[in-house]
Amino acid sequence: MSDPIDRLDQPRDQRRLGRRRNHDSDRFGIFAEGVARFMGTARFLFWMTLFVLVWVLWNIVAPTDWRFDEYPFIFLTLMLSLQASYAAPMIMLAQNRQEQRDRVLAEQDRQANTRAHADMEFLAREVASLRMNQGDMATRDFIRSELRSTVSDLSEEIQRLAPDDDTDNDTPASEDRPKS
């Protein structure tokens, strides 16, 4: 059996690799998102169009010795293909990162909706129990109506028991009493 260093089917031991830089995948992802965002703007289209126009005009109008890409502009095609070959993976990386963020936000929204639903159910039960308990208790309006009814009854009773005002009021009440 050969030495593990010579085996290609086994990963190397990380301790033997020495110090490796820890690459921050988020840093490149943020860079890729910035590039993808810029490529999706009118400013990028303007500058890219200007670049292509200058390239083509230079290689048509410039003196022959200064031209570097004769018609059919093979080098321009190569440059645009190179740009597209780098742009596509960066755009896909930016989309994947956005999809991950959307997934996290959707999960947070789902959890918030679940909590809100549970809170609403709890409040509905509380309101129902309050309504049931209130059915057993006298309300303020009920007590007021009962008090008005009692005051009205007392007023009628006082008027019924009070002496008639139609009798002769000139005689004092003491004359009505028999003398002893």
Automatic annotation (TrEMBL):
The lineage of its organism: Bacteria, Bacillati, Actinomycetota, Actinomycetes, Propionibacteriales. It holds the Pfam family DUF1003. Keywords: Membrane, Transmembrane, Transmembrane helix. This is DUF1003 domain-containing protein. InterPro entries: DUF1003. The chain crosses the membrane at residues 44-61, 73-94. Residues 154-180 are annotated as: Disordered.
